[in-house]
Every structure is written in C-alpha cells, then in structure tokens.
Amino acid sequence: MEPMPRVLIVDDEEMIRAGLSEMIPRLLPEWEVAGACPDAESAWEAIQVLDPDLVLLDIGMPGESGLVLASKLDKLKPDTEIIMLTGYDRFEYIQSALRSGVSEYLLKPVQRDELKESIVKVGEKIAKRNWQSSRMLVQALSEWVVAGEEQALQTLRDLLASEGHLGHGLSYQLRMMMYVKSDTGSKGRDQEERHARASGNVDELKLSGADIRKWAIVPLAKACDLLFLVGERLEQSPPSAGEGLTGEGLLIACSDPVADPSELPLMFRKVQERLLRSILDGESMSVEEMDRLSRLTVALEMNDLAGTVTVLRKGMEVWRGMEPFQSLRGIFRLIAFFAGPQAHRLKSKLLKQMQPATDELTSRMVFAYDPIILPQEMEKFIERIALLQPHAPEDRKVIGKVKEIIRTEFANPDFTLEQVASNVYLNATYLSELFKESTGQKFIDYVTEVRLSEARRMLLETDMKMGEVCASVGYTSSKYFSTLFRKRFDVTPTQYRENGTSQKMENLT
To answer: Do 80 and 54 contact (CB within 8 A), yes or no?
Structure first.
C-alpha cells in the first residue's frame, strides 16, 4: 500500500482544530491527520518531525503569523502544500498568501464541500508530483544501478536529498523479485500486480521491524523486478520476506544494506548472484542433466557444431515441458556451464567461435531473469551458433601454425601433441584427426620425419658425436634413435655418415 498523505492542522482556536481533525477523516478517509498545533512556532517543530504533505494554516495567529510560516515553508520545504484558512476576504491578504506558495485558501467558517474540494485538488497535485518524482527515481536507479552510467549517480543523490532520504543514518537495499508460477504468462506484467507484490513484501519487512521511508520498483523483465528500499534496520528480514522461493511463487534475493548510493551497482551484481544461486541450488543435478552436459562437452571438444546444436535443441525441448522454475534452473545451469571454469578449461576452437554469442547471452542475463524471456534468449543463442560455419581456410592456418610449432620445438624431448593443442586452442583428439586429414600423416609421424631430417643434416654437415645428434633432435635414447633411423633409411646413423663422407670424397676426385 502507498503511504497515506498526511495533513497538519495549525490554528490558534481549539474548536477549529478539533472540528477539522474530526471532519477530514470522515470526508477524506484516504488522508491521515498527522497532528494539530495552536501556533506557528510549535507547528514548525512538528513539521520537522512529522513531515506532512499538507498544512492547513490559519493566516492570523498570535505571535508568528501564518503568512510568515507559509513563507518559511515555501523556502525550506517547497514540496509541502499549504491551504490557508482566513477570516479576511481581502485581496491583499490573498495576494500575500499566493506569493508565499499557498495552493488554496478557504474563508472561515470552513464549509465541508469547499474543504473537501480543496484537499482533493491538493491531493491530485501531490499525486502528480509523486508520480513524476517516482518516474525520475526509477530512471535514475535504472541508469546508475543497472546500466552503471556515472552521471546518473548525482541525479539519484539529488532526488533522494530533495525528500530528505540522503544520509541521516539511512541505508539502501536492493531486492530482486522473480515471479515463477506456472501462470507467469498472465502474471507479472500488470503494473498493479507488480505493485501489489512489492507492497506486500514491504509490509512484511515493516512488520519485522524495518523502518522503510521510501521504496521504488525498477522493472527488469516481464516477471522480474528490482525493489529499491530506503530506511533503517533493513537487515531485519523474516524468512517469509527474505531470500528464497515463497509459497506464492515469488523468488526473492536481497543485497546487504549499504550506507551510500554509490555502492548500489556492486550490490546489484551481488543480488543477481544470490538470485542465480537460489535458482541453481536446491535440487541436485539429475542424471539426464549430467548426461546432457557430458554430451555437450564431448561435442565442444571435438569441435562438432552440429552435435553441439543438437544437444542444445533437445535440452530446450525438455525445458519447454517443465514448470517455469524447473525450466529456469535447467537453462541457468547451462549458461553457468558456458560462463564457468569447466568450459574455459576446454581447448575448443568451436567454443572460441561461439564466444561472441556467449558474451551477448550472459550480458543480457539481467533482463532474462524471467520464465518467459530466458527461453527466448536461449533460442536466439542456439540459432546464432547454428549459423557458425567451420572454415577450411581457418583449418589450414591452424595446421600451418602446428607445423611451425613442431619445427621450433622438435628438439624438446618432452614435446607432446597436448602442448601443441593447447597453443592453438584445440582439443588434442580433434587436432590429431584434423592433422591427419589435412596432411595425410599422423602427428607423431610428422614430428619423427622432422627430427630425422634434421639428424641427417647434422650427420653430414657437422662433427657432432652420435649421442649429441640424438639429443639435438629430441631423443634421450641413442639406441631408440638408431632404431628409428635405420627403419626409415635402411642404414644406421653411423653408416649414413660414412656413406655421405665417401660420396663427398668421390665428388672431390
């Protein structure tokens, strides 16, 4: 519920104060009489404490006049509306009152219909101003807290300060609320429904002891809102108003209270993490889900685009048939896989190709906390990666890079296929198959050929001992090196050197 507008009555006549205090609730039950004061001095003190929306003010009182108080209010509390009560039907008094920021004036004795009409007018003015202020506040919150636009922080500070909600020991808190009932399609989008959910949550917090001075709703998605709270003792949340899934299908996560609006973007990230944790926690992953992620991992490691898309599409078919909350959990777990360390450890060229689509999906997470929107975003993601094409020229570049690495590293006895695969961001099994397909040779056969070719050069062009040649081309065992050499060239390394030397001598003669 919106707080009732409050009126303070200021008149030196006790009978008038009592009469108005009784009349206003009967005529306008939506208004609360905050208090009644006999003079301007006590009224000013009461205004500091009660902060009324409207002051019914007698123009002529002993001591400080109503006009003086009206002028003070106009300068120091310009949002406080004033209806002047006067027994003087004189132009100069009315003119002075209007110059002092008075909205309406009533002649004594006050008539019921005139009083009601004047307060209704003022109420409409207050409602319009509050609506405009709320819109500005929601926009500032959206720009600063959600989008991180620096210039919006000062706007937010100014709006809060104008209502006395900046500093003064007040705290600020964010609460994300997602409606996850099966009838989400009809719920959540209606403004009154959203307002009622937020208002109910605020009422529960108040019952728990929180002193809430201001709250606003920032819509994030069709069924997901960000609730902004200003007040004291905001950390006192009962389980029903705290985090988790309520019986009404409302999933709630809240940030820690902070003392300054500048900290709100960080709190927004944290409250998103908490909401995501609320979705992912609870039920352990089913055998079917684990199998799906396992098949997805294999497809990505093998750079199998068709297989990856098939796994994702079949997953979507399963999630469409689930309750909204279960569907959210399944999709979020998949997104968490792509964004998490498990995927980052994969040396997959396909995963690297998918990165722009993955980044876009995760960047839209704040707007996708919704059982309707999230599946749509996931569908877009799948269709986008389905359009990716394995590029043969790219494969040739990769193989060229692999050959270059081999020529540079062949002398390292610990040189392995896994090291090369890591350097070119591919799965080792996939690289092995791609290398064979592209060159007609197995990876190890190509490495052996490079090593033995270099050994032949050293045998003919240098005086290095056999053990030194062996070590220089990446072998730790001279016996194994000699066996490989003989198998490849039908002579031992020593015979090859001798034959090569003899051939040189013959050429000289």
So the answer is: yes
Lay out the sheet containing 54-58: strands in order across.
Answer: 32-37, 6-10, 54-58, 81-86, 104-107
In the block, residue with structure tokens 């900290």: 263
- Residue 254 pLDDT more than 60? yes
Contact 220, 367 (CB under 8 A): yes
- Pairwise CA distance, residues 50 & 44, whole Å: 10
The pLDDT tens digits for 158-206 are 988 888 888 888 999 998 887 765 454 444 456 677 777 788 778 888 8
Strand, helix or coil for residue 106: strand
| H-helix or E-strand spanning residue 245 | strand 244-245
pLDDT per residue as tens digits for the range 329-378: 788 888 878 877 777 777 777 888 888 888 777 766 665 666 677 788 88
Q: Note the CATH number of domain 6-110.
A: 3.40.50.2300
State which amino acid sits at residue 24.
Answer: I
Nearest to 178 by CA among 235, 227, 138: 227
* Residue 213 host element (H or E): strand 211-221
Exposed (0-12), middle (13-18) or buried (19+): which is 234, by Cβ within 10 Å?
buried
Q: Please, what is the angle between helix 305-320 and helix 373-386, to 10°?
A: 160
Tokens of 303: 């750079």
Please name the residue that has the structure tokens 């403004």.
191
**Tens digits of per-residue pLDDT, 49-58?**
888 999 999 8
- ∠ Cα 220 226 232 (to 5°): 165
Res 409: pLDDT: 92
What gap in Å lies between CA 128 and CA 220, rounded to an integer?
24
- Contact (CB, 8 A) for 84 and 42: no
User: pTM for the whole thing?
Assistant: 0.56
Q: Are strands 171-179 and 250-254 parallel, antiparallel or unpaired?
A: antiparallel
- Cβ–Cβ under 8 Å, residues 180 and 223: yes
d(CA 407, CA 454): 10
pLDDT of 246:
55
Range scoring the smallest mean pLDDT among 325-329, 402-406, 457-461:
325-329
Which CATH architecture does the domain made up of 393-508 adopt?
Answer: Orthogonal Bundle (1.10)
Tell me the torsion sign for CA atoms 15, 20, 26, 27: positive
E strands of 282-392, at which residues?
none
